[in-house]
Amino acid sequence: MRAFYHVSRWVFGLWYLFSGVEFFTPFNLQPLGNTPLGQEFTLALIHSGLFAWIKVMEIVIALLVLADRMMPLIAAAAVPLTVVIAYWNFALEWGAVEAVFGMLTILFNAALLWPYRAYYIPAITAWQGEKDFGTDLRPLSVIGR
Question: Are the beta carbons of 20 and 55 closer than 8 angstroms?
Answer without folding.
Answer: yes
